[in-house]
Design goal:
Blueprint lengths: L5 E7 L7 H13 L5 E6 L15 H11 L3 E9 L2 E2 L1 H8 L11 E7 L7 H13 L3 E2 L4 E3 L2 H4 L9 H38 L1
Parallel strand pairs: 1-2, 1-3, 3-5, 5-6, 5-7
Antiparallel strand pairs: 3-4
Helix pairs in contact: 1-6
Length: 198
């Protein structure tokens, strides 16, 4: 069966050297290679010039918005800081325009936290903000607890169940897009074609 090629974009909500959010995203990138016709672009904001709200715009902002605009689906990955998601992630979202280019996009959430409870609060807040700007936030966000000890030296997760849940983010996002978004687009294009022919 021929499947429509899909392009996913992940936003990395941490700029700390050697950050664990990036390690989680590398596992997702590996998982993407197991899905035919799916690509993943990870946006690391470390060297992007992203103005604070009210400080205008930049070439990096325009490029960031263009990358997200072209995405079939989005992954937002954040560490938990002080009971919420990172200021880096908030700055990324704040630079996605008004209305946001996330509006109408299927979005999956991933959080990492050093505590035993995981990134539950961060993911609750991120879901609220992403939904507020119009994203279609998928259920089942993945939280990695005890993240400072969760990865081995090669960047693999010690706990296989956690790794399976993390890799499942890609499957869930691709499945949603292919069963919901793509058929809807095909139907809209077919209707336009019929209307144009009439």
């Amino acid at each position: 069966m021929h499947t429509h090629p899909l392009h996913l974009v992940a936003l990395q909500g941490s700029v700390r050297p050697g950050n664990n959010t990036a390690k989680a995203l590398r596992i997702l990138a590996d998982e993407v290679t197991r899905h035919d016709g799916v690509t993943l672009e990870i946006i690391d904001p470390t060297h992007l010039h992203l103005p604070l709200p009210g400080q205008g715009t930049s070439d990096d902002v325009a490029a960031l918005q263009a990358h997200l605009e072209s995405a079939d689906g989005v992954i937002l990955a954040t560490p938990e800081y002080h009971g919420s998601f990172s200021s880096v992630m908030k700055l990324l979202i704040d630079n996605l325009g008004f209305p946001s280019v996330l509006a109408g996009k299927p979005v999956a959430l991933v959080g990492v936290a050093s505590g035993r409870v995981g990134a539950i609060k961060a993911l609750e807040h991120l879901r609220s903000v992403a939904s507020h700007v119009g994203a279609l936030v998928l259920p089942g966000p993945v939280s990695i607890a005890g993240v400072r000890r969760a990865f081995d030296e090669q960047g693999n997760l010690h706990d296989t169940r956690t790794e399976e849940r993390l890799r499942g983010v890609v499957h869930a996002l691709v499945h949603y897009i292919r069963t919901t978004t793509c058929p809807r687009m095909a139907l809209e294009n077919m209707v336009r074609g019929v209307a144009a022919a009439a």
